[in-house]
Amino acid sequence: MGDIAAVYGSPRRQGNTAALVKRAVEGARDAGAEVDEIILRDFRISPCLEIYGCKEAGECVIKDDFQEIRDRILACRGLIVATPIFFYTVSAHLKLFMDRCQSLWVKKYWIEGTPYNQWTPVRRGLVIAAGATRGKKLFDGTLLTMKYFFDVLDMELWDSLLVRGVDFAGDVLHRPEAMETAYERGSTLAQSFREEV
Ligand SMILES: Cc1cc2nc3c(=O)[nH]c(=O)nc-3n(C[C@H](O)[C@H](O)[C@H](O)COP(=O)(O)O)c2cc1C
Predict the structure, then answer these.
(1) CA 17 – ligand 1 centroid, Å
(2) Could you write out the DSSP letters of every residue in 70-100?
(3) pLDDT tens digit sequence for 139-188
(4) At what angle do helices 16-30 and 176-194 cross, to 10 degrees?
(5) What is the position in ligand 1's atom list of the atom closest to the CA of 167?
(6) How does pLDDT run across 122-139, given as a tens digit for each residue?
(7) C or N: which end of the chain has fewer Cβ atoms within 10 Å?
(8) pTM across the whole model
């Protein structure tokens, strides 16, 4: 297995979550990890069409860039996923990818018959999210969605970095504590694998 995959879920290339995940990637690399960066907006991914072609072999039958990204993520022990908050949940780019992972859910629970809540995590996930407002529940929807998305990847929600009050691209660059935390979380995630070797 490789080290870490880092998923950029925002449509904005120079946006707030892109800046945060870039910093987390620097932290991970400085700690010695190999990081595979995946910018979702550069790929063509259809929505899940709910035809359940995956019932045969746990393989999504829609052929596009989904398979490549899925395989790159499954090849890693750690995943950093960054998303802006759009209407209290993840970006559309990220959600399209997530929904296609229903094929992994079908494989795990229907085909392989894994009992619910009785599997051992083999991966660790770090969620980075940013939103404009400061509401108490701003990240509740996203964290719940992530928890169940990570489940299909045999991954625990290891940690999160949630930043409120950033809206225009680059706002987060004026929040040095958030940028520093991103670096530190990336570094700690990488070190957690080193310690196990
Ligand atoms: C379609 C859309 C929906 C949004 N919905 C919310 C929202 O529900 N709550 C919020 O606080 N900010 C919302 N925002 C603001 C973004 O979360 C905010 O600008 C964030 O910093 C963008 O991150 P990015 O630069 O990484 O894309 C929304 C922005 C867009 C474009």
Answers:
(1) 10
(2) HHHHHTEEEEEEEEE-BTTB--HHHHHHHHH
(3) 999 999 999 999 999 999 999 999 999 999 999 999 999 999 999 999 99
(4) 40
(5) 19
(6) 999 999 999 999 999 999
(7) C
(8) 0.97
